[in-house]
Each structure stands twice: as structure tokens, then as C-alpha cells.
């Protein structure tokens, strides 16, 4: 156990040995094991966006086994997916990569302004599949956010009682927030704080822009001169908003992008004190070897 991983685990002093063990399992796995940084492969897009939009560009991605193998070959920290995809390969790849079972999902066939994802898996499923953690999405800003918060509280309590870590996707979205506001600095920082207050061990958010959505928050940001010009400064503020950096905060990769842009964002995450990246479409929408090479470059940045 490295000094850095021991330091991180020390921030979770109220959790059980089982939860700490599973956090350590993810932090110590893969090429970034022991560094305190994480790169995770999430593949929930088939449910969230539809199969063709997700996998037609790289047809091997239709096969759930493909994603297990990609995460293993790239030596990532963990692999996250909904129930069906994990059931499709958990036995064959047992013990080879830490798993995160995504417990709720939302489909695009009913893409209402104030979404409420459906619970599609259980803590018992996660235990049966040998997972290290459960994942759950909340949409701060949705008129149905209170239901999500209450569901998360129940799921989180059960997961922690069974020694599983809790990963929260905290994505601002809803009729009360503009499209630009979904990634505004004040809203993303608020979303990270909400996830931390709800008991998340690992928090996943989108990269923040310099935009400020809330008028009252804008006054405070401008009066206190919170640095927000560079992406690294904005990342640092989001991490600070997660209990002063005492929670693991990782950032999503978003839609497929150019390598140069993606690597620049990763460098900014590292420079801003972020703990890592969770990269789906930018990974599995490439041919296997190209995806492994790209992920290795990202790992090199975090390890450097």
C-alpha cells in the first residue's frame, strides 16, 4: 500500500473495512495503481443513448466481452456498466478488473425535460457479480431530483452495509438549468458538493466551463475572485467543493473528440488536482488497439 493510497483511504474514516478494501482495490489496480489517480471505462451508453449511436462506429462494442477485455488490456482501474453488460462477462473475467455496477439508467426514448432514471440493478446484483462498487446517477436541477436523492440514500446505505463503495454520477440537468448551465462552474461545483453530502466515495462530474449560471452565485464568485480562467483552475475549484479535496473526484470524457483536445483536458485535470478520468465513448468507439494506445497516453499523463 503506497503512502498516497493510505492518505486517501484516511479521508473515509467513518466507513467499514469492507468499503475501504474495495476503494483500495480500485486505487491499487492497473498501471495507475498506488498513484492516487484513476482511469475508469464506463459503458452505459447503449442504454442511455441507444446501440447504434454507441457501437455502430466500432461494431465489436456490441459484444459485452469486448469492454471487459478493453479495460483489462489498457490496465485501467475499473470498468463500470449496467446489469446486462456486467452479467455478460463477469464470470469469464472474474477477478481480472474491479467492477462498478451502474444501478440506474435513463433511456432517450422518453427524454423529458426533468428526467428520472429507473433503478435497473440492486446491491444484491453487485455482490453476486463480485463488484467493488455500485454507481448511481443524480440530476441536480431536475424537478425529480429529490426522488433520486432519496433513492441514493437507501441504495448507498445498503451498499455501505455490505462493504461496497459508492460512485455517484452527478450531472446537473433539468428544466431549471439552461443547457450552458449544465457545465457552468458554479453548478458543477454544486453538483459535486451534493454528491459528497449524499455520501459518495467517488464523484463523477463533467468538466466545468467558465460560465456562471446562478445570479446569486455569480455575485459571490466575482466578489471573492474565485479563479476560473483556465480549466485547471476550474477543476481545482470543483475538487475544493468536494470537502476540500477529501473525496475522489473524477471527470467524464464526454463525446468522442480529437486526441489533442482530450489529452489537453486530461493534463488540466491533473494540474487542477483532479483524481482522474472516466472515459467511455472516446475509448470504445475506437478500434481496440487505437483505444488502448489512447488510454495508455492518458495514463502516462496522470503517471508523469
Could you explain the architecture of this structure?
It is built from 14 helices and ten strands. The chain has one domain (3-303): Aldolase class I (TIM Barrel). With 304 residues, the protein is of the alpha/beta class. It has helices at residues 3-10, 17-27, 45-49, 51-55, 64-73, 83-87, 123-128, 145-161, 185-197, 215-224, 231-240, 259-271, 281-284, 288-303; strands at 38-42, 78-81, 99-102, 104-105, 118-119, 133-138, 165-170, 202-205, 248-252, 276-278. The model has no long low-confidence stretch (mean pLDDT 97). The strands form two sheets. An eight-stranded parallel β-barrel has the order 1-2-3-6-7-8-9-10, surrounded by six helices. A two-stranded antiparallel ribbon has the order 4-5. 47% of the residues are buried. 44% of the residues lie in helices and 13% in strands.
Amino acid at each position: 500500500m503506497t503512502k498516497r493510497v493510505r492518505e486517501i483511504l484516511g479521508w473515509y474514516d467513518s466507513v467499514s473495512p469492507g468499503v475501504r478494501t474495495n476503494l483500495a482495490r480500485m486505487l491499487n489496480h492497473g498501471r495507475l495503481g498506488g498513484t492516487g489517480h484513476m482511469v475508469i471505462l464506463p459503458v452505459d451508453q447503449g442504454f442511455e443513448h441507444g446501440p447504434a449511436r454507441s457501437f455502430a462506429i466500432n461494431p465489436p462494442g456490441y459484444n459485452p466481452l469486448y469492454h471487459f477485455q478493453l479495460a483489462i488490456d489498457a490496465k485501467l482501474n475499473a470498468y463500470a456498466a449496467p446489469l446486462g453488460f456486467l452479467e455478460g462477462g463477469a464470470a469469464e473475467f472474474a477477478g481480472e478488473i474491479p467492477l462498478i455496477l451502474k444501478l440506474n439508467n435513463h433511456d432517450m426514448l422518453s427524454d423529458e425535460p426533468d428526467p428520472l432514471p429507473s433503478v435497473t440493478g440492486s446491491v444484491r446484483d453487485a455482490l453476486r457479480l463480485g463488484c467493488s462498487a455500485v454507481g448511481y446517477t443524480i440530476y441536480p436541477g431536475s424537478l425529480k431530483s429529490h426522488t433520486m436523492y432519496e433513492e441514493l440514500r437507501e441504495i448507498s446505505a445498503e451498499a455501505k452495509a455490505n462493504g461496497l463503495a459508492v460512485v455517484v454520477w452527478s450531472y446537473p440537468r433539468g428544466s431549471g438549468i439552461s443547457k450552458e448551465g449544465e457545465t457552468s462552474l458554479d453548478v458543477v461545483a454544486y453538483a459535486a458538493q451534493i454528491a459528497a453530502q449524499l455520501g459518495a466515495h467517488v464523484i463523477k462530474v463533467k468538466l466545468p466551463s467558465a460560465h456562471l449560471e446562478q445570479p446569486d452565485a455569480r455575485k459571490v464568485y466575482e466578489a471573492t475572485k474565485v479563479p476560473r480562467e483556465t480549466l485547471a483552475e476550474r477543476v481545482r475549484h470543483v475538487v475544493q467543493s468536494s470537502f476540500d479535496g477529501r473525496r475522489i473526484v473524477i471527470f467524464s470524457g464526454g463525446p468522442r473528440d480529437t486526441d489533442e483536445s482530450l489529452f489537453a483536458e486530461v493534463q488540466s485535470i491533473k494540474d487542477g488536482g483532479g483524481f482522474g478520468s472516466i472515459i467511455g465513448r472516446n475509448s470504445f468507439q475506437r478500434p481496440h488497439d487505437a483505444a488502448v494506445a489512447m488510454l495508455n497516453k492518458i495514463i502516462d499523463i496522470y503517471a508523469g
